[in-house]
Design brief:
Low-confidence stretches: 499-509
Strand order of the largest sheet: 1-2
Largest sheet: 2 strands, antiparallel
Strand content: under 5%
Length: 509
């Protein structure tokens, strides 16, 4: 009860009353962060980016290079999460830390970027799950079944609907099942790291010189640029550092549990991801083109098929699909982010989206809003496979816009930042500088198409969707009379702040 009281008092200092039940223990907060990454299913979803952009060398060394920069972002986010553990996350931090002249505008922009990133993340995860299901169907049919995008879209919508139903359940149920999902994800990683090399026939095993040194550029970009494009794999897998932040109002001892979850999940995700990449590089064979064009339609599934055979792959792949499916937590986390933003009246229909169901303690309307938006975004599939693939860089690019502004605002804004229990000491500023320089750089890279020569069906739609959403949000913000510039004031406290400070500063007892 003492911990719960301290959590409630800290939330009150930030200007909010306790509305959710704090059902998530520190272990379950970590499970959310780690399972949200889902190293194996997430890597399976984006292996198609690293194989043609450097092959084994990009998988092994590109992962390590990118991870060093990714970790700086995680550390900076963890420090902010410890200072202000609230469901609003990056947009709350932006308003609290930015200079008074810019805080409303930047808060507005960050909120919409973060919302876009999470909706794209929902679309990417559930589309990947649909593709993985059709890959299982292809394996089971002896590779004679080849799903059309319309069929994959139907499975995708069904997955979205089922995730919506799950995320409207009571918070206590959702918290308890995190431990099961954690065990599944870690077990799958070790099956690949240990089991795949033992099972793969010799004709598919690669030499150390190939697995660790072969650079295969299949898409036509210059080698250096192709190597950087392969970073989408680690950036997608080890991402969404604010996932646990958005459930901080449901977490026990949030100021410590949330940053620890971010840091620990990042370290473990990076190490397990790298180990799996090494195992895959040794077991993938040398015909990389066939892995990408295989009838199975999934490079990792083809690697498993080569190593474990049809029956073994079907068993293992069933667990991969389960692990991918249970990343429904992105809907759970995104709904909390939508709830927090709507609570401050920044989204259309905010009064509806910010309601919490009394019986389940879940923001049910926000859940369905996300699912509807993701289903519309999934229509990109009908423009071609490359078009729907844009949801991966779109998700990363959008949240990186939000992260960059929030972290930079801490140092550039006029604020009275006071660190929480987790802090980086003298390393805080240099780590933040690295993170703030790296993320915009990768945002620009992710706007480029997969290949130098492109068309309407092969272009990268990230710039269209992200640019369109942010552009429209700015139009609404500056709209005469009705625009947000006339009424939006950032996070709106729903109780009197107990520390007596202004809403624009963050302090701790």
């Amino acid at each position: 009860e003492e911990v719960a009281k301290r959590d409630e008092e800290l939330l009150a200092q930030l200007g909010y009353k306790q509305e959710f039940k704090r059902e998530f223990t520190p272990l379950e907060v970590f499970a959310v962060a780690f399972s949200f990454m889902g190293p194996l299913p997430s890597l399976a979803s984006v292996l198609v980016y690293s194989i043609p952009n450097g092959g084994p060398a990009a998988m092994v060394w590109g992962w390590l290079v990118a991870s060093a920069f990714i970790f700086t972002t995680g550390l900076s986010m963890a420090e902010l999460a410890s200072a202000a553990p609230t469901a609003g996350g990056v947009y709350f931090w932006t308003h609290s830390f930015a200079s008074p002249r810019w805080r409303n505008f930047l808060c507005w922009l960050v909120g919409y970027a973060n919302v876009t990133g999470y909706i794209a993340g929902v679309a990417a995860i559930d589309w990947s799950c649909a593709v993985q299901i059709t890959a299982a169907m292809s394996i089971g049919s002896g590779q004679t079944y080849n799903a059309a995008n319309s069929q994959i879209y139907g499975i995708y919508v069904a997955i979205l609907l089922s995730h919506a139903l799950i995320c409207t359940l009571a918070t206590s149920f959702l918290a308890r099942v995190q431990r099961v999902y954690l065990a599944i994800n870690i077990s799958l990683c070790f099956v690949v790291i240990v089991g795949l090399p033992l099972a793969t026939p010799k004709q598919y095993m690669n030499t150390p010189s190939f697995a660790l040194g072969s650079f295969d550029n299949l898409n036509g970009w210059p080698d250096g640029f192709a190597f950087i494009l392969s970073f989408i794999a680690p950036l997608w897998t080890v991402s969404a550092f604010d996932a646990s932040v958005h459930i901080s109002e449901e977490a026990s001892n949030a100021a410590t549990a949330v940053p620890c979850a971010i840091v620990c999940s990042s370290i473990i995700g990076i190490l397990l991801g790298w180990a799996m990449n090494v195992a895959l590089a040794f077991c993938m064979g040398t015909d990389l083109g066939y892995l990408l064009s295989s009838p199975i339609g999934q490079p990792m599934a083809q690697i498993f098929f080569n190593g474990f055979g049809q029956k073994g792959t079907l068993v293992l792949w069933a667990f991969v699909v389960i692990a991918q499916y249970v990343i429904y937590r992105i809907v759970l986390v995104a709904s909390r982010q939508i709830f927090a933003y709507s609570r401050d009246h920044a989204l259309p229909f905010s009064s509806t989206l910010s309601r919490v169901n009394k019986s389940t303690g879940a923001p049910v309307n926000a859940v369905w809003f996300i699912v509807i938006c993701a289903s519309l975004l999934g229509l990109l599939a009908f423009a071609g496979t490359q078009a729907i693939s844009a949801v991966f860089p779109l998700a990363v690019s959008a949240i990186y816009v939000a992260y960059t502004i929030a972290i930079a605002a801490r140092w550039l804004g006029d604020n009275s930042f006071k660190r929480g229990p987790f802090h980086l000491g003298i390393f805080s500023l240099p780590i933040s500088i690295i993170a703030v320089l790296f993320m915009p750089f990768m945002d620009v890279i992710f706007l480029f198409p997969t290949m130098p020569s492109t068309s309407a069906t092969t272009m990268n739609y990230t710039v269209v969707v992200l640019g369109g959403v942010l552009g429209l949000s700015l139009v609404w913000y500056y709209l005469p009379v009705y625009g947000g510039i006339h009424w939006f004031s950032g996070p709106v406290p729903n109780i009197a702040r107990r520390d007596g400070n202004s809403p624009d500063s963050i302090t701790h007892d």
